[in-house]
Amino acid sequence: MAKRKTVAIFVIVMRPAGKEVLFLSLLLCLSAFFVEGSHMTTQSLSESALQLAQQGFSVIPLKPRSKEPLIQWAKYQAIRASEEQVREWWTMQPDANIGVVTGQVSGLVVVDIDSQEGYQTLEMAEIDLSDFITPSARTGRGMHYYFQDPDNAIGSFRFHGGDVKSDGGYVVAPPSIHPNGPLYEWITSPVDIGLEYVPIKLLSLRSGSINLNSMAGTGISEEDRPGLEQVLSGCVLFKFAAENPNEMNERLWYASITNLIPLKNGRQKIHELSKGYNIDDTRSYSYEETEAKISHALKDAPGPHSCRYIQESGFQGCSTCEYLGRIKNPISISYEAGQGAYTGPYQVYTLADALSVHPPMVYVVDEIIPLPSLTIVYGAPGSRKSMLVADLAFAIAQGSGWLPGENSELSPGIKTTTAAVLWLDFDMGPIPCQKRFSAFARARGMTADAPYYYCSMSASLDAGNTESVRQLENLLRAYTPKVMVIDTLSAIRGSADENSSLMSGLMTNLRRVTEKFGLATIIIHHQTKGSNGFSTNAAEKLRGHSSIMAAADLALFIETNGTISMVTPTKCRHAEVEPFEAKFWFEHIEDTKELKTAGFTGVRTKATISKEDIFQGIMACLADRELNQTQLLEQLQGKFPAATKTWLKDQISMYKEDPRIRITKGANNATVFALVSD
What angle do CA 137, 141, 142 make, to 5 degrees? Predict the structure, then answer.
């Protein structure tokens, strides 16, 4: 309960002539709330959280007067909570502190100064954060400075007296209450002012790094810097700048400066290129003007500008670059991670990268499909593999449980994280897609604004072709999905033989796209023909070259018996996934054979069938006759219709060594089962 205090104020006026005191004023009674957790603070916490979410930040609730998250926040490193979710959090806990997740999900880097030593460290590095017109906040012990870092050039690291928070971190935002009592306070709020680019000089504080400041300043002598020729000969931008300087816009000049300045003789090359640029057809840049641009780049640029930044600045030549999709920025042609001159496309990491703190894994399907990951779903024609994946895709787009039980309230299904889905159909065609997808959407009560997108036969995709992959990347940038479904693998292999080693390059391209965009990529594929015998395990039924399975993080084999689909994991790179079953249900539009609604529910059929049940079933089938493997399987399927064929095959194999059963070879070398005579 808030404490109310009444304050009496007297206004006294002195009349100089008569030196009389006249009480002219009325008693003013003011009511104010002085709270341990005041009403005004609580109200502004809710409003501030919503405002920050509206600015595009990923907002999470923290425990009152604490820095500890109130929820499991890992998934909000990949997706931002909706405004409705933010309102719900602060309705349930009005005095919750506000956390803002840093990194790519918010496009945000925060410099956290928590002691006087932090300011001294910055001063030694000649970094004055007060020079930047960017949001800042007073914390319990220091300051937070908010910057944008769209190319993720800085990363997270600790320095003496402070740290830089990017991917995998969060900060406490005003007007939260510090655990020691003080309020976090905005000096300048992001609601009132935009974010400046993070100063690249901060990288000089990161142990062992080579960056613009340390290389172009006094940190490393020019003789020790990586060379220039590889970058000039490998990057088409610099060839273009030399031949067409007047067609270079301001953004392209800045990208050229930030990628050349760290290199030996790079400053000289910048001056050489700038001389070719004519200002008003009268003169080129002077030495002083070029130096001013270089200084500005060193202060404000977000690191060596990326290839993506160059493309988005209007430069079309990147499509012809031999390094397209393999390097982050032009300077990477010459060196990686400060390891000296390097002329190839590899990105080199150090043990420090491996030992650094990594964010927890985020799942779009709980404990099954993480971000990023590449999943192969395969099975025979008619196994409903595409239908099952479609049901999964709609569950993710809605953020609802996948494979709920018959009573969804008691068994809500496997938890999913709401994410945008892009389905690329190269198999069915637009009309079948429309009918199928509308049935799954209606079954879940979804509306047209759900984040579900699909393309059907409108363009071809050759995953082994660089230009075709570039077009796919443009599509992904436009719609920013977190889940991409490709139906089917055989339709995107171009001229590559599915059983040849050429599939390795194709799968590598799909892996790169998956990692680059942080996707959960799900590829639908077929099982190999003629793989119904007992000698072939489920993993061996994946059709095509071994590189297909090798590229997958998760492989799921689908086999269907009636309305029941058995899902068998045949490869799990991350968490172990247990086999599970799904039951297909549907409803037709009245007086037609077209789907009105469709979906899957979760079942656990084999759990209800004991080993003794199976053995008695086999004994009954063989009571008065001999049966080959196929005949015995058919008989058992009749006795156990809910069980899948793969599971029943495994059960039969367990009894091949049983002394009560005789195994012989019949016609065409078929295995024949019979009971041992007494």
Answer: 45
Pairwise CA distance, residues 546 & 464, whole Å:
16
Q: How many CA atoms lie within 13 A of 417 on its CB side?
A: 26
Q: How far apart are CA 424 and CA 522, in angstroms?
A: 10
**Phi-psi domain of 564 (left: phi exceeds 0; alpha: psi -120 through 50; beta: other):** beta
Give me the residues paired with residue 13 across strands: 22
Measured CA to CA, the distance from residue 487 to residue 543 in angstroms comes to 15
Q: Is the pLDDT of residue 470 over 90?
A: no
Contacts of 146 (CB under 8 A, 6+ apart): 108, 109, 110, 134, 135, 136, 137, 190, 195
Look up tokens 């990268």; give the residue: 353
* Strands (E) located in 451-553: 452-456, 483-487, 520-526
> Distance (Å, rounded) from C-alpha 586 to C-alpha 409?
20
Distance CA 605, CA 583 (A): 10
Cα separation, 435 vs 425, in Å, equals: 13
- Give the total residue count for the chain: 678
Q: CA 148: distance to chain centroid?
A: 19
Task: Show Cβ contacts of residue 344 under 8 Å, excluding neighbours closer than 6 positions.
Answer: none
User: 19-50 pLDDT, tens per residue?
Assistant: 343 333 333 333 333 333 333 344 489 999 99
